[in-house]
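call fold(seq) -> tokens
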Amino acid sequence: MSRAFVKEGDGDDSTGDLPELPISEHPNYVTPRGMALLRSRLDDTSRRLAALDAEIAAASEDDGGGERVGVKLERAHVHRDIRWLQARILGAITIAPERQPADRVAFGARVELIDEEGHEHRYRIVGEDEADPEHGLISWVSPLARSLHGARVGDSAVWKRPAGDLSVEVLAIEYG
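ret:
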């Protein structure tokens, strides 16, 4: 039977059958910026929960309740997001860029590369939760970051991509 036809419980903490959000199997390394982003997301999500609680309370007073089931389901989703964010923050290991080897690629490095076709690329190696490849932020567990780990300026690495392997050379490494 479709979930659309199943009545949700009336309990405030009912999550129905919501599965927990997956937690990565890798250590949760974060940059100081990544930790700040996680905390900000938790604050925003907590504010959203407070707004939903106020909406549920107002609907209970009016006893109109037409949107209450949808709001309670959204509340369950927000609770799940809060649990996930809290777990990510509690398990986070902040890596300060200044504690990394300045002459080698490691977590937190900004790396400038040139590929075999002459295209330049710039990436910063960050935690999984901070990764945003479109903005040059790649996860430390990505194929590119793994292939670059420990490289020095002038070293080459093979970037294993779905579109095919690409040889890259490290042009510059910067931290901070």
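The chain is about 35% helix and 20% strand.
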